[in-house]
Specification:
extended; alpha+beta; two-stranded antiparallel sheet
């Protein structure tokens, strides 16, 4: 008898932010660090998210490591993207490199 297709097969994730372990770890971070640690220009001051110091896109094996997490507000966490700590967006353009026609 042929097997019935039962939907998409389950695949284990290497990191996830929807499971119970992540929710517990996030709650721990927000409890220990209630104030935003990034303090960017549009900072609200109150931690509402757990920010990965080393980004998940480059270091997925550190997804649930407490030492890789810090409390941050949503605005600061969203503006950081996948940059490493201390990494700027790039050098500011100098006036000598501007093109003039």
């Amino acid at each position: 008898m042929p097997r019935k297709y039962e939907g998409r097969p389950r695949v284990a994730r290497t990191h996830g932010r929807k499971g119970r372990p992540w929710r517990r770890l996030r709650a721990q971070v927000l409890l220990e660090e209630p104030w935003c640690t990034i303090r960017g220009p549009r900072c609200t001051g109150i931690s509402t998210t757990a920010d990965h110091l080393l980004p998940l896109s480059r270091f997925p094996h550190l997804a649930h490591t407490r030492s890789n997490l810090r409390g941050s507000c949503l605005r600061c966490n969203g503006s950081k993207h996948d940059r490493l700590p201390g990494q700027n967006r790039g050098p500011a353009p100098s006036r000598s490199t501007q093109l003039t026609w």
